[in-house]
Amino acid sequence: MKSLNIFTDRFFYPVLAAVWIASMLMLHSNFSYRRKPLPSVDLELPKNRGVQKTAIVRSSINELKSALSTENDPQDQLHILHNLGIAYYDMHSLQQGRSMLDSAVYYFMKSVEGGPEIARFYYNLGRTYTTLCNHRKARTCYEKALQIKPDHILALHNLGLVYYFEFNNPGQSNKYLQKLLKIDRDLPICNYVLGEIYLDKKEYKRALAYFINEVQTYQKLTRRKFSLPIAKKNLQYAAATAYLRMTEIFAEKIKNRQNAAAAFASYLALENNIQRKSKSLQRMKKYGFK
Amino acid sequence: MAKKKKSRKSNRIGQPQSSPSRRFSGTPLLVFENPSGAVTKLLIVLQLLLLAYQFTPQLSTNGDNAVYYFLGKSLAKGTGYRNICLVNKPIESTYPVLTPLFISLSQFFAPTPLLPKILMAFLGALVTLMCYYLFKSYLSFQLLTPLLLLTAASGLMADYQLILMSETPYLLLTLCALFARCKSIEAPENRIFFWIALTLSVLPVHARSIGIVFSAAWITDELLQKRYKSAILHALLVGTTILLFRSLVPDSSAYANSPFLKNAYDPEMGYITFHDLKTRIITNIKVHLTTLFPRSFIPFTSSKPGAFQMFVAAGMMIASFVGWFFCFRRTARIFSIYVLFYTGLICIWPIANDRRICPLMPFLLFFFITGLTIILRIPLLPEKRFVSTLKKLSAGFNRLHLTKAKYGILWICVAIIFTMNVHYRIRNPLSPRHGTPDWKNFYSCADWIRNNTPENSVIVNRKPELFYLRSHRAGCMYLYSHDVDKIIQDMKRKNVTHVVYDNFAWTRTTAKYLYPVIASHPELFDVVYALKNPDTFVLAFRNK
């Protein structure tokens, strides 16, 4: 009788295990680990809305500030200060407030004071000064960044542009931009500036080559949709003006009317500024372009 | 035989003058041979019903449970002990091998997390069964029943029985080893129990690294009992198996070093100082006493316990302490030594959470029942009786027993704790995190990655293992560093192709570490998929 007792441990527990496991398997057999679509898929954002959104930047600022208050390592504190400067700089691009840039300068200055051996700190401080139109300080910062890291692409780029546009020094600008193009040919605006420099020197073929590079770089970048630390309108201005210069060189110097017409058509498609557009149309009338 | 019966009786705490097991032995309750066995079966069925109610096939949002699953999967595939969801599939060195081995066995039958999850939940029921076998040598039927009731109902243990973590296998192995040890002490002439106990005692350290304190407690108690041969054999066996594992797995000392690191996620930050260690211990003790132990006894979902919960939990902690202290004098001394060593270690651990208390729960509940019994037995008045009772207790409390009224008080306490635990389990049947919008968006990004990127893509995200489950793309975490260039270099070294910018409500590490990287190097990133509420992005990484 004892051996038939279903409540003995050696009978009861294996049966219980088998029944429970089997029933659980049957109950959940339809479950999929790749259920699709998820409800939130409906909430897709337009892709052009980047990560730099006010809520995200604010959240980052809060986190970095709390990290700063708890961090004991001086080296890490410097990086946090620098990252705070970056966040405030982004906040400025969202809210357009000068106070944000002042905060960015404050944090960048602190990071530079503590870590004068890090090129990135100087570059970002310089970038903030450029936005504040304080170009002398910006130039000093870029030069310091290049003393520490001679191949700092963005510092070379910005310094080349500052020398050309703000200090009217094409020689220095040429020096830095040539160095930059040896490292990376795909950077925008610098080819345009070099084209202008060689156009002033009346080296038309060389200037044309740089303008062609500029528009090719622009096409490449816009196709890939890379976000750059350069305003899109500046990118577009450089490319449009490069097309216009190409038109002039093809029409006046190389006497290739077909290429000139194609370049001018591209210019018209790219140019957003109506005043500039109408001025160019006036100038190009003499070549028969409408 | 009679002698043996007597010795067992003398081990029992709260054994009344007329033993209930003897009283029931001649008159079976229904068709059961013994009432405690019948009650245990009933409780295990109840526990399984509760587990079935709470069960969800989805993997928990705890990243470790995905790691265990994929390690098991890798073993089942025959690719070795590798973390297949990480870039370059590195050999795993921080997770002990037993839990993945257990999971790998289930993968031969069904290659999804469902079966191992069900089996893990069933191990939870086996924990209650092993508690019955182990503690029936120490407690009478009247005290064993409330203990098993609380074990089966424990919300904390259930939380870890429902996810693929090593806590439940570890706990089961410790209970099995201790039970085998009890058997070997009860029947020293039967050497088979000795060898079984010795073999089982080595396994916990290979289920969880913290199992080293189990071995330390085992050796300490064996030495105190002057069983030198057993202590030496255990130490040799543990040492040999650890060395064997380390010889097979390179850099397996990483986890052992982690308590002494400043930041376990960034070992380059170096080791803590003595001052840091002191501060950490004080903080951990505070957190354990004010939040973690109360939450382990009476689980609650809010960050702080309510006044009543705190009152009950404080009572339980006091009773447990009394039980722990008194068990030092008994054959249950190994439990006290183990709990002492274990709590000592968790106080120096960098992260304090209830996960580490889970494997202690049956022992804490055992101390609670013992302690409560002792407290109820001490008469407050008159003074003479109080002193004489204390003397009796210090000599050995097995001869004392509870009156009916006091037994009623004990049951009221147990009923309150049981109700609060079951209430927590019924109210909180599923992990709510899966339903939260931050997780939905995270998994939606994983779906997008699976459908729109090549198979060899490498994705940086906050939870690479959980992300792999849906995306089928290897991934890695961003470094926990404020140096953005260091993070960029690390991403380039790992050939990262995409980055997931999450907006998890439970952590802000992405805002803290990843945001500055994207903001300071925007030329390297491009948004390719974006979701709102909360904002979550997939960014292509320009890895030149």
Structural overview:
The complex is a heterodimer of chains A (290) and B (544). Chain A contains 13 helices and no strands. By secondary structure, chain A is an all-alpha fold. The termini of chain A are far apart. Chain B has 24 helices and 5 strands. Chain B has a domain of 106 residues. At the A-B interface, helix 1, helix 2 and helix 3 of A face helix 3, helix 6, helix 21, helix 24 and strand 4 of B.
Give a summary of the structure in a few sentences.
The complex is a heterodimer of chains A (290) and B (544). By secondary structure, chain A is mainly alpha-helical.
Which secondary structure elements does this structure contain, and how are they paired or packed?
The complex is a heterodimer of chains A (290) and B (544).
Chain A: H1 9-27, H2 54-70, H3 74-95, H4 98-114, H5 119-131, H6 135-148, H7 153-165, H8 170-183, H9 190-200, H10 204-224, H11 232-254, H12 257-270, H13 274-284
Chain B: H1 2-11, H2 20-25, H3 35-54, H4 63-77, H5 98-107, H6 114-135, H7 141-153, H8 155-161, H9 167-186, H10 191-202, H11 204-207, H12 212-224, H13 228-248, H14 254-257, H15 274-297, H16 307-327, H17 333-348, H18 361-377, H19 383-395, H20 404-427, H21 437-452, E1 459-460, H22 464-471, E2 475-476, H23 484-493, E3 498-501, H24 509-520, E4 525-531, E5 536-541
Parallel strand pairs in B: 1-2, 1-3
Antiparallel strand pairs in B: 3-5, 4-5
Helix pairs in contact in B: 3-6, 3-7, 4-5, 4-22, 6-7, 6-9, 7-18, 7-20, 9-10, 10-13, 12-13, 12-17, 15-16, 16-18, 18-20, 21-22, 23-24
